[in-house]
Backbone:
């Protein structure tokens, strides 16, 4: 395992078919840790991933799951398709979630995360209880491996996430804080949200973005290269330090295209390293 520092700057990256090539590329950017995302069709080849991580001395903080049928086209589509909220896919996604947790455990990873979907603001909403019960089952399954289960922020205001979190009442339930998501979904000012959720946060995404256009109801905001959006990355990083957060900050660029994304990633890692 590499020597990891406080506020270690890592990357969030998606599982690609060639595990070793992916981890080598990240290593070549000067990064020694990160969070691995697996989408619904990713082959959970623990042997190949374990070998790649060992060969490159690369540490994984978290394995994140995304699911078949999810779409982030706009907020109503997210509400309809993402996480544990849609009833039609809930049972299949629970099965897949357990498989991803098994995969993470086989890699020795200590945390699992996902978007559980847009939690309704009203506790009497018919999906509130089923989602809460599923979050508890997933947390308990993760706990059986000594793993935390991280909820990702942004799809609801921080106060509502905190209330749901307290209702779930699971000791291994934690938060992966994404400051850009708070902005992209119009869910609230990210630095204040971080302070409110701080004691439950075990990992942070380094991501930036601008607020939704108020003239386009239901539209998401726009992801931006790190440091050029509305998060105020220098202030966010100083808030992490001021509040005693020492966990990882993993860059999530959302930039696509083979060359562009590596360039964006490298620049974002350099920016965060200069601020840590
Ligand atoms: Mg994120």
Residues:
């Amino acid at each position: 395992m590499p020597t990891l520092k406080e506020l270690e700057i890592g990357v969030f990256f998606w599982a690609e078919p060639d595990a070793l090539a992916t981890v080598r590329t990240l290593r070549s950017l000067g990064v020694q840790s990160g969070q691995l995302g697996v989408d619904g069709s990713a082959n959970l080849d623990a042997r190949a991933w374990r070998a790649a991580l060992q060969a490159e001395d690369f540490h994984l903080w978290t394995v994140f799951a995304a699911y078949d049928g999810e779409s982030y086209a706009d907020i109503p589509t997210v509400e309809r398709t993402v996480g544990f909220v849609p009833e039609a896919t809930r049972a299949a996604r629970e099965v897949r979630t357990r498989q991803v947790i098994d995969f993470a455990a086989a890699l020795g990873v200590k945390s699992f995360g996902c978007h559980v979907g847009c939690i309704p603001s009203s506790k009497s909403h018919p999906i509130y209880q089923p989602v809460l019960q599923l979050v508890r089952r997933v947390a308990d399954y993760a706990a059986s491996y000594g793993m935390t289960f991280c909820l990702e922020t942004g799809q609801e205001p921080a106060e509502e996430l905190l209330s749901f979190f307290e209702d779930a009442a699971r000791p291994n339930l934690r938060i992966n804080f994404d400051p850009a998501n708070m902005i992209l979904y119009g869910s609230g000012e990210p630095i204040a949200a971080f302070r409110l959720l701080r004691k439950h946060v075990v990992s942070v995404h380094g991501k930036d973005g601008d607020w939704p256009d108020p003239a386009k109801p239901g539209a998401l905001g726009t992801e931006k290269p790190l440091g050029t959006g509305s998060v105020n990355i220098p202030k966010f990083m100083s808030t992490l330090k001021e509040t005693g957060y020492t966990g990882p900050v993993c860059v999530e660029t959302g930039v696509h295209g083979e060359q562009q994304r590596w360039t964006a990633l490298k620049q974002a890692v350099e920016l965060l390293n200069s601020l840590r």
